[in-house]
Amino acid sequence: MLKTAQPSRDDQRALTCVPGPYALAQPMPDGRYRGLSLTSHFQPIFSIAHGRAVGYEGLIRAQHADGTAQSPAALLAMPSNGRECLALDRTCRSLHVHNFAKQDTGQAWLFLNLNSQYLVSEQPDIGFTRNLLQASGLSPHRLVIEIIESEVSDQAQLKRFVSHFRQLGCLIAIDDFGAGHSNFDRIWDLEPDIVKIDRRLIQDAGNSRRVERILTGMVSLLHEAGSLVVVEGVESEHEALVAIAANADMLQGFYFARPQAQINPGQSFATTFDSLLRGQQWQSVKRSADLRHYVREIEALFQQAVASFAANQQFEHSSSFLFNDPRTARCYLLNEAGYQVSRNVHSPHEQPQMNARFAPLLCGDNANWSHKHYHYRALKQPGVIQISRPYLSIADSRMCITVSQTIKVGGTLYVFCCDLDWQEQ
Fold first, then answer.
1. The domain at 9-268 falls in which architecture?
2. What's residue 356's pLDDT?
3. Of 223, 249, 296, 358, which one is least surrounded by beta carbons within 10 A?
4. Nearest CA to 257 among 285, 290, 235, 230?
């Protein structure tokens, strides 16, 4: 398995322009531009579930006559105006499509980039892609048009181009989501088939549990919007495991394979993905075990508090048992309907840390927590201690874990709750 440093995004961005109104698709280009020799490289995109490449992103490579490389960023900076930019783009896209079509790629997708700024500002005709597909013999449903996430003022024009590509039968992807001008408005508006998460997000998520949770939430929201999710720029096993835990559908990055001119469809990655999935399952089990271990020391105190309340119905007195553990933040009592029927009883250790900025939320009297997992899970299993996953507490905007249990007192069901401070590991 190749593991190399991910190149800069500029190095991967071969296609930042769009077709113009001054030519139809040409036969296979000669692969030359201003004395440079141009070639296509293809980086695979892997389905986690299938353990194999299901698509390839077309990337440009350029060389001088003496064999020295010209960076893609320098190549794309050579055009001096929009017309020249579109001409270079035409050459690059034609090169990628023809080189991809003549290789054995089965039913795999070809991902091609289009910069939405140029797409709107240059107002190109809409016949180039159709003619290019016809000339190459590549089926439209195998082409994924990547719209680079950039600021576009004319959203209506962008939607017209996207509609045209869809009518051809192509798929639409939003690229670099999570960076720059990214926003979910573009997702609701364009309804992409695929969203590619910017590589900086997986890098940050690999180093921060907070960002990891953000990534997981983002993937979930994109799925709810009807889009498949690719996490790109995966450079390590840890980042791959984070992306899998976030429930991404596909992965791309140098941890798996670097771009190559020749596609090797017979190369198997099943063992690699089997190993990753086992690793992710082990991490999930370990996190659950760590959570249980974190709470284990307080379970005896919690049982004392619950038993005390069942015996004397003095909630504040019963809560005091739990304050022997400095991790305890507060205790509160809910009824069967989820309404808080006691005030928040704060630990003496916690009171000096209470933030006045959240004063409107510190009082939970008559609040309804029936939508919270620690309430409805406790009701489903009366008498069994429930332990929540770490979550952000509305009371003080800090991470906490809630321990809860349903008890019956005088014929009435209550849910006894205790919040523990959770320090990010």
1. Alpha-Beta Barrel (3.20)
2. 67
3. 296
4. 235
